[in-house]
Aromatic ring-hydroxylating dioxygenase subunit alpha (Variovorax gossypii), 406 residues
Amino acid sequence: MSTVASASPTEWQPIAFDTGTAYGRKPPSHKPELTEVGAGTPMGELLRRYWHPIGLSADATDTPRQVRVLGEDLILFRDKKGRAGLVHWRCAHRGASLYYGRVEEEGIRCCYHGWMFDVQGHCVDQPCEPDGGARSRGRVRQPWYPVQEQYGLIWAYLGPAEKKPVLPRYDCLEALDEGETLEADGNSIGGGGPQIIPCNWLQHYENVADPFHVPVLHGSFSGTQFVALMGQMPDVTFESTETGVKIISIRKTEDGSTFRRVAGPVLPTLRVVPNPRVAAYGRVESIGWVLPIDDHSFRIYTVGRVKTPGDLARVRSRLNGKLWEELTEAEHRAFPGDYEAQVSQGAITAHSEEHLASSDRGIVMLRRLLQRQLDAVREGRDPAGVSFDPATPPVHFEAGNFLVRE
């Protein structure tokens, strides 16, 4: 054992070594079953059992558009008959990208040899072949995915055809109050940054189950990003539901009334979060969907009830009137928000390094919910929240900002 001299030259004492340093740490790791979304992965196969918004309706035009969804590179277009289509980027003939294709009446035509595919991938013309390939083109099909349009969004189903559910509807978007219309937005409202956010989707999705970050990150660190009432540390109750985690946050107003806020994540990727600026009390005004682009990036599509066009965009956070992308690096450092807190964890956070506490109960409940759905799909069962009945009523949420006067 190493020793060190004491005050007396004839006495020796053991050195008290520091413990708990970073030396010798094991390599960090993440939970691949919850984070990785490519085809064939557990989460990738689970997410492929649901519909996902992949763009605004206005994004589907006669100009081919590149989109990346769940790690797959695809081409979105709208043929001259007004039908939206979503096909694999690589032409089934010789592999040229359909991004350079030309959209016509019946579909999209490859720039290389002119093969044309309709919105369901059928090859309808092969101009270099006799009779336009009439004898053989039926044997070729461009990989494609079903799409539907609803609430101003393009929705796609990337899973097995025999398991395709009906596209859900939501009562908070179906029943409009007087003077309201629906508005769709692709600016990743709630993500706190640019449209495409460079980290794993779960880092944001779990944030929806974390009400305690609001008074700290959005209050203490960033000033009053929302309203002063949201800066108050809430009394929180977490409840498991079949399809999500319901979070009830209670705060007291200055006049002694009770501010009851209900929010939470819902399968498969929904953000059911009432306006944190509490512009009005009542049921949730908008809902968002976290779209995993791949393992290292995501974006958010939002639909809400508005009375004035542009109301959704005005919900975006601003510092001294400046949007996130207009802030300097010094301002990002001094006034961090969701983007900084989540992206700074890394492209995929190191779950092995976490030390969860009692305030993380919502995170634990959400992870267990996701794990149950992974188990269901692995065992050949349907995950929660899917329906195959077209008559299924709209999904109801209890979410909202409510004022209870004593």
